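hi! just following up on the protien thing from before. the input was this:
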Amino acid sequence: MADTSTVTEKGSSLWRDAWLRLRKNKVAVVSGVVLIVMFLLCFVAAWFTGDPNEQNLANKFAAVGSSSGNTLHLLGTDQMGRDLLSRILFGGQVSLLVGLIATSVAFVIGISYGAISGYTGGRTDAIMMRAVDTLYAIPFLVLVILLQEVISGSASEVATWLVKHWKFPDETTHRLANILPLFMAIGALGWLTLARITRSQILSLKQQEFAQAAISLGLSPSRILFRHLIPNTLGPAIVYVTLTIPSFIMYEATLSFLGLGIKAPNSSWGVLIKDGANYMETQPMLLILPGLFFTTTLFALNFLGDGLRDALDPKAAKD
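and the predicted 3d structure came back as:
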C-alpha cells in the first residue's frame, strides 16, 4: 500500500495577499514608482540645484538650458531671475510635506476619535458625532484659515525656542514658523471623514466573536480597542489616507494661490502656479512646468489609492 503524506498548505496573511494583488495592478505599481522618483527629486536632487531664492534680475525669463555664471538653468528662470527647476523641486518639498504631515495628523486624530466614539457608544458616541457634524457644516477652508491664524503665534514661539536652545539656523526656524501652521491646521481639521469611517468599522467589529471573547477574558477596554479592534480597521483607513493626501495638497495649493498659504520667499507648487498664471500669455512655461509636477503627483497618488483599495478589498480574495 502506497504511503501517503498529508501536505499542509502554507497560510497567507491579509497583507501578503493584498501585496500580491497590488503587484498585479500595473497602473498602481507605475504610480508608486513615479511617487518614489518625485520624492527623490524633491528631497535629494533639489539640494544640488542651488539656492531657489537667489535672484539675478539681469537673467530674468532666461530660456531653457541657459546659464548665468557657473549656474546652468535646465528649465530657465522666472520673473526674478531665480532658477525655475530649483524652485519647483524645493516647492515640491512643501507640497509633499503638507500631504504627509497633515495626513499623519488627521490619521492619528481620526482613528482615535472614531474608535473611541464607536466603542463607547451611547450618549458619548452621540455627543462626539454631533461635534463632527457641526464641524462638517462649516466650510473647510474657512476653518483652516482661522485655525492657521491661531496656531501662527505658537509656531513663532516654537521657532524662537529652537533658535535659542537648539541653535537652529534662523532661516530654517523662520521657514518652519511659516509652513507648520498650515500643515497643522489642515491636519487638525481633515480627520472628520476618517473618524466616521473608523466609527462604523468599530461598531461592526465589536459585535464579532473575537471582540466578545476579549471582553469575556476581562481585558481592559483600552487593550481591546488598541490591540484588537483598531488594527482591523487599518485597511479602509489606509485606502482613505492615500486618497486624502492629494486633497490636502490641493488645499495647500488653493490657499497659496489665494495668497493665504505659503509666504515668500518660500515656495510651493501652489505659489509657483499662482505666479505662473500672471505670465501665462507671455511666459507659459512658468505655469506649465510646475503644473506638470503638480498634476503628475496628484494622478499618481490617486491611481495608487485606487490600487490599494482594490488590493485591500476582502471580496478580491475570492478571485
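Residues 84-120 form the longest helix (37 residues).
The first strand starts at residue 66 and ends at 68.
cheers
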